[in-house]
Amino acid sequence: MSSETRIHPETGRELRRGIRALTIRYRGLERTVDVPGWYPEDDSDGILGHDGLTVTDAALSEIKAEITGLPNPDEVRRIREKLRLSQRRAGELLGGGPRAFQKYESGEVVVSRPMANLLRLLDRDPARLEELQTEEAA
What we know:
The structure is a single chain. This protein folds into two domains: 5-52, no CATH class; 73-128, 434 Repressor (Amino-terminal Domain) (Orthogonal Bundle), CATH 1.10.260.40. 48% of the residues lie in helices and 20% in strands. It is built from six helices and three strands. The protein has a three-stranded antiparallel β-sheet with strand order 1-2-3, with helices on one face.
C-alpha cells in the first residue's frame, strides 16, 4: 500500500487521497467547496483530516457571517488594508490580540458583532483610526 492510500478503520476499504465537492448547507444558504480527504472508489463516506475540516469550517463560517450580516474574511481584509494596518497591528489596536485578524481573514473565526461594527465605522471614516492611535499612545 502506498503512502497515498490507507484503510478505512470501520469498513476496511481502501481509501485514496483525493478531493471531492461537498455542499455545506445552513439555514437555507449553501456553498459547494472542494474538500481534500481520504475517499473510497465509490461515493461512500471517506475520512477528512485537518485540511478538509478547515475547508468545511471556513465555508460554514462564511455562510453564518452572511446570514448574520457580519463581514466575511475578504471584507475584513479589505478594511484592514484600507486602514494600512498589519494583521498584528490591527489586533493590537482594535482588539482581539495579535492573531485575531489572521483568524478572521482565514475564516477560522467569524468577527464578533462589536468588531464588525468598529470595522464598518472605520471603513466609512478611516480618519477615526487616528483617534484610537492617539489614545493608545497617551
